[in-house]
Amino acid sequence: MTRYQCIRREFMKYEAVIGLEVHAQMLTHSKIFCGCSTSFGSKPNSQTCPVCLGMPGVLPVLNKKVVEFAMRTALATHCTISPLNRFARKNYFYPDLPKGYQISQYELPLAEHGHIDIQVDGVEKRIRLTRIHLEEDAGKNLHEGIEDASYIDLNRTGVPLMEIVSEPDIRSSEEAVAYLKKLRNILVYLEVNDGNLEEGSFRCDANVSIRPVGQEKFGTRTELKNINSFRFIQKAIDYEIKRQEMVLEEGGRIIQETRLWDTQKGITVSMRSKESAHDYRYFPEPDLVPVKIHSDWVEEIQKTLPELPDAKKERFIKDYQIPPYDASVLTQNKKIAFYFEECASLYHRPKAISNWIMGDLLNEEEIPISPRQLTGMIELIDKGVISGKIAKTVFEEMLRTKKDARTIVEEKGLLQVSDDEAILSFVDQVLNANPESVEQYRSGKERLLGFFVGQVMKISSGKANPGKVNELLLKRLKNP
Ligand SMILES: [Zn+2]
Known about the structure:
The protein is 41% helix and 20% strand. The chain is α+β, with helices and mostly antiparallel strands and 480 residues long. The strands form 4 sheets. The protein has a 9-stranded mixed beta sheet with strand order 2-6-7-10-1-11-12-13-14. It has a 3-stranded antiparallel beta sheet with strand order 5-4-15, with no helix packed on it. Helix 4 packs antiparallel against helix 5, helix 9 runs antiparallel to helix 10 and helix 9 crosses helix 11. The protein is elongated and about 100 Å long. It binds zinc ion.
């Protein structure tokens, strides 16, 4: 065995070290340093003014709401809010940044040292947050459909962003996605961000490195930029871990660089080698005074925080006696959680409600039926008006037509048949049609009961009351 092969054997096992930086656009109506609108999808450059265009001689004025939104986030993620924080200029030249610098925070961020708890495969894990700071967004270069030129849309310049930076506590792509989903969920509950990855209002960069298991020191990291779906984030991280393993296994060395995820090819590609912090020549922003945050203000914000996903989950388990799994699924989306609670206030069967929501409504963009309609249908099942099987049809019809369950049942003649005589006639039809099976049943093959039940349900188009069917079948089979 060559020396190379020995080394290969020894270093086969690597561990990934991942830290995430999330840029979350805050749901304010106006920009961070001026009164321009932040709404998405408007005509290019229609939402700009001398301040966000970075004209000489203008002065930025900080939007108080932006600070409040970041404070809400900081408190919800157990961060410490700095009583004094300050803006800095991050200097770099880019076409979509006319000022030549971005106003951000550097050595005195708004908040630090928080954490978010995640669960992967039933195992709880704490991911620490390094910091939360405020900054302004840059503009956007437009190339599509334009020949021999680049246009610039500056509607986004000055849109308020929160950068939420995690410690490198994440060890796999699954943990990364669990963390991001949890964070997004919290931001949406707080109403500080709309959680929209496609429109770029929740963007993530991942710093990924690997090291031999047992080694303390971090490996060289690469940065994956701006990936716009949870699925791609997971794939990009997995690919990057594999790529780095291959490079090291072949005796190569990882270069610190920024890489992009190529959606088409399913690989990461090098974009540029990484600037280090001093390349940006950060210095305190002279046009903005430092932000002082008094403890009274923090307390005031604390009082306005809503019930957050973890607390809601615990309460659902306790108040509604539903399994922890249901509670965690139902609270992963604020809209679903509220919907469930409204249903549960209308009807006393939370587990049945949870089943229907988790089975059919979870992935709906807008829930198409009202809580009263859903619980109305469950009540019809419980009262024996429709069978569970027919309920599926009624439910689909309800989604399609938005009519109440009872109306659909009446219009389509789907009432459950519980009348003895009617069911007996179905039973007799089935028994007469299958004399051999009846003979076998009577000589001890009792498993055939299921077959008879199935046949009766079939000829009754699923409308026969299954309890009655069983009862009457047994009666006929035992006393011919
Ligand atoms: Zn403006």
